[in-house]
Amino acid sequence: MSYGNQPGGPGDYGTQPPGGGYGPPSGGGYGPPGGYGAPQTPPDNHLVAAILTTLFCCLPFGIVSIVKSSQVNSKWAAGDYQGAIVASDEAKTWWKRALITGLIVNIAIVILYVVLFVVLASNLPSTPYDY
Fold first, then answer.
1. What number of CA atoms fall less than 13 Å from residue 11's CA on the CB side?
2. Residues 113-126, buried b or exposed e (16+ Cβ, 10 A)?
3. In this predicted structure, what is the pLDDT of residue 95?
4. Within 13 A of 127's CA, how many CA atoms are on the CB side?
5. Residue 18: pLDDT above 80?
6. What is the per-residue pLDDT for 93?
7. Does the pLDDT of residue 78 top 70, yes or no?
8. Contacts of 61 (CB under 8 A, 6+ apart)
9. Contact 45, 84 (CB under 8 A)
10. Taking the CB of residue 112, how many other CB atoms lie within 10 A of it?
11. Are the C-beta atoms of residues 10 and 3 closer than 8 Å to each other?
């Protein structure tokens, strides 16, 4: 009487991987890095940078950055982890835009003042009696 292919016989499944072949793979869990579910910590909301760039650089872009950064924690608390990551990335993008715009505008203003000063200084009389 035959019971079919027995372990170790001609129909064997082959050798098992080291460690018995049970449990998660050696590289970690069974899904994306960090496993399934919520990551351990919420993404950075970039609120401090958003507020500073709003105050000192570019008001319109800074306001957008503050709105996006305020969405990060609320989406995280609601369980929308992917939405929180996207909102964090958008907040970072907007405060960087505000910073760059503010720097460009402030540099242009300084150049304008220097040019204006040079033009006005060149038109002044050389002696107090040359009118």
1. 4
2. eeeeeeeeeeeeee
3. 95
4. 2
5. no
6. 96
7. yes
8. 53, 94, 95, 97, 98, 101
9. no
10. 10
11. no
Tokens 């098992």, residue located:
16
| % of the chain residues with pLDDT over 70 | 67
Could you tell me the two tokens for 57? 């650089």
pTM to 2 decimals?
0.62
- The ranges assigned to domains in the chain are 44-131
31 — pLDDT class (breaks 50, 70, 90): very low
Which amino acid appears at position 105 of this protein?
V
Contact 95, 65 (CB under 8 A): yes
Q: Are 43 and 81 in contact (CB under 8 A)?
A: no
So what's the pLDDT on residue 118? 92
Which residues, including other chains, have CB under 8 Å from residue 71's CB and lie 6 or more apart? 83, 84, 87, 91
Overall average pLDDT of the 31-45 stretch: 67
Structure-token pair, residue 29: 């869990």
The two three-digit tokens of residue 34, written as one number: 């960090």
